[in-house]
Each structure stands twice: as structure tokens, then as C-alpha cells.
Amino acid sequence: MKIALLSDIHANLRALEACLAHAAAQGTGRLAVLGDLVGYGAQPVEVVQRIRGLAGEGAIVLKGNHDECAVAPPAQARSLDQSGAAWTHEQLDQAALDFLSALPLTATVDAALLVHASADAPGRWLYVDNERRAETSLDAACLNPAVRYVFCGHVHEQRLYFRGAGQGLMRFEPTPGVPIPVPPHRRWIATVGSVGQPRDGNTRAMYALFDADRAELTFHRVVYDHLAAAADIRAAGLPAYFAERLEAGL
Q1: Largest interatomic CA distance in the chain
Q2: What does the pLDDT look like over 143-161, one tens digit per residue?
């Protein structure tokens, strides 16, 4: 079974559709969306509608911090993110808000635990952005002895960690499109990157593909019309900073 791992879509329908088309061409058998459907982007209604449809077809969908904030934004925005959450809340109807509110924080698929942030405290939205945080998350997930893999988002970059012969975790920087052997005799944790808002200076959308039968993980980058997505943000009246980030991949 090949499972496409998509995260941090951030209301970017153009990037989402590009990644879905790319994943279908790879022979994907199942989809998992690891949270942050909304936030920053100009098309929360369309993205939530699209993903609700995918969920109805069997896709796994998790909750991210931006989803939670869009459901119940603070009364007074103290940041651009919170201001965007209030705007998103106003765009979504009650059915969409109920869908986001009901999303789970984690899911398990065979030997893989899926989570938006860190498995040790999924609702605290901790970033798995270094070896220490990756080890804490992996250790928590592996309290279930059947778990050999943890796949998460939230970080907006693609990275793989694994437990080698020593005590600590090893960090691996993937090359897009190149399958990485991830044999189950080791334990692995990966951040799959962001579909809708890459932050590594590369404007291409990100997702990962896990082939459980071959025990391989492939990180992908997908070209989409990021300039049009940035123009959508400006046209919606959202902060220009959100558009500038898409244009620069930051």
C-alpha cells in the first residue's frame, strides 16, 4: 500500500490539487492529511470542502493548530496569524467548522502513527525540528510496540530521523524524488513538509509517499502556480506578508 502524506495545506487549493494529481500519478492507494487545512491562504472554503470529500472516500484527516484556531479564534487578534484565523472563521459555514472541530489529533495505520505536531503532546503543537524533539516524539509513539514509523507535519520542512546503532537519533536530509529505504527493524520519524507554504526557500509544494510494502519513503516537491496563489491572497484582502512568503518560499 502506498499512502500519500500531506500536511499544512494552509488554504492553498492550487498547491493541494497539484500534490493530489502528482500522488495519483505515483499510484497512491490512500491519502492522509496531517492537519492545518486552513490558515494563511485565500481558499479555506474550497480546501475544507475538497478534503471533506476525500475523507468521505476514506482519507485520514487530522487536526492542526490552525484548524483549531479557526474554529475558535481569539476575541482580540494579537498577531497576523490570529487575524487570519478570524478571517478564516468568518468564511467557513457551520458544517465546515464542525468538521474541523471534530478532527482527531492522531491516527494509527498499521505500523505508522500519524500526528500534526509531536506525538508526546499532540495538542500542545510542539515542533519536531531537531534530534532531541524527534527523539521525544518517537519514544512516546513507540510506547505502542507495534509502531515503527511516525509521520508529522507542522515544521514546513522535509526531514527524516532514525534510531541507529547508538542511543541518539540520526538526522537525514532527503533528496526529492529519491526513495529512501526505511526498514521496520529500525524506528523512524519524518516531517513531511508543507503542501501550501514551504519555508525552505523553494516555492514548490511538498508531500511524502510511504510505500509500506517496499518499506520506502519518498519526499516529493511539486511545481504549482505559487504566484497565482499569492495573488489570491492579495485579492482576498489578507496580509500581504502571507503572499510574500509564498512568492519567496519562506
Answers
A1: 53
A2: 999 999 999 999 999 999 9
Measure the CA–CA gap between 210 and 149, rounded to whole angstroms: 10
Distance, CA of 40 to CA of 87 (rounded, Å): 10
Q: Which residues of 138-161 are buried (b: 16+ CB within 10 A; e: fewer)?
A: bbbbbeeeebbbbbbbbbbbbbbb
C-alpha cell belonging to residue 183: 526498514
Q: Collapse the DSSP code of 92 into the 3-class scheme (helix H, G, I; strand E, B; otherwise coil) and give the result.
A: coil
Cα(71)–Cα(19) distance, rounded to whole angstroms?
A: 26
Question: What pLDDT, in 10s, does the model give residues 200-218?
Answer: 999 999 999 999 999 999 9
Residue closest to 158 by CA, chosen among 60, 21, 12, 19? 19
Question: Is-contact 243 195, C-beta < 8 A?
Answer: no
Other Cβ atoms less than 10 A from the Cβ of 165: the count is: 6
